[in-house]
Amino acid sequence: MCTGISVFSKQGNPFWGRTQEFDMDLEYLGLIIPAQTVIQASLTEYVAKHSFVGVSIKGADMVVDGVNDAGLAGGSFYFGNVNRYEPKSEIEAAGKLPLAGEEFVTWALANCKNVEEVREKALAEVAISSDGGMLGTSLPQHYVFQDLSGKSLVVEPSIPGSFEIYDNLVGTFTNSPKFDWHVTNLENYVGLSQEIAPARKIGEANIFSSGKGNGLYGIPGDFTPHSRFVRATFLNQFSDPVDDDKAIELIFHVLDSFDIPKGVVVSGDNHKVQFTQYTSAYDLKEKALYVHLYDNRQIQMLSLEKVTEPTRFQIISEQQVAKMTPLK
């Protein structure tokens, strides 16, 4: 359960952000991987052509989301029931590199400079395997990318040994079903408006407006991927344009609408709790990550620095509270 959006500043610069939900407590770190690093994935290894910075999981040489030195940003999202993976042996027999579901974004940021290279290289060079995986299994995932040109791309391993790829013209991304279904579903909500509907006379009765925000009456408020896609699209669409220095702030304001408190969403016989573990935002031009955690709402920042080896950075998990000071 994750939600992602693209934001463009008044200056035309792209920013991208996402929420990360999961039903297992994980420890997250900042990670910078320099170019020429040999990246050891669970089924293969390759050499990074680009350096990149992103959010990693402790014990894993990969990022869940990140941005590279060319300004390509991307994230990995859950894609249950729709993913179609192949065994490692079949992928290698086709002359491609096998990757576990959660490893594709790391590979793309390490190897591609923009979304067009992601499109080209994904189809020609790699496929997602049913083998391997950081957690002992290849997780069902699909992926979204944003680059400095303003283009966004969705990559879905819904074909065995290959991908279905879509231009993301709405700048929104969630989970299954497939991306094209979500875009078609927006047809049901084109009547939504940010304008407050006025009162009107019906017969001889004066019917007052129901109040603020009623132009958005009917916008879905639950946490299903279908509803989050609609809600994120229109909240982002209706938000006032901002300058570069306010774009990261806007991403957090929009994505905070999708924050899931612990206990609200529970799955399975063992009652696993799914909650928003972190929210991240990226400045593609400055190659910078901004993130806050479930237990620490203070925004923490990490920019792409020059390092000689993969370097991890602590994301402080304890809530940081600033004490008020007297006005002078």
Automatic annotation (TrEMBL):
Check the record and name the InterPro entries matching this protein.
Answer: CBAH/NAAA_C (IPR029132), Ntn_hydrolases_N (IPR029055), Peptidase_C59 (IPR052193)
Q: Which source organism?
A: Listeria aquatica FSL S10-1188
**What's this protein's family per the entry?**
Belongs to the peptidase C59 family.
Superkingdom of the organism of origin = Bacteria
Keyword Lipid metabolism attributed: no
Q: Keyword annotations for this protein?
A: Hydrolase
Protein known as:
Choloylglycine hydrolase
Q: Name one GO molecular function term.
A: hydrolase activity
Tell me where in this chain the Choloylglycine hydrolase/NAAA C-terminal domain is found: 2-306
The answer to whether UniProt assigns keyword Hydrolase to this entry is yes
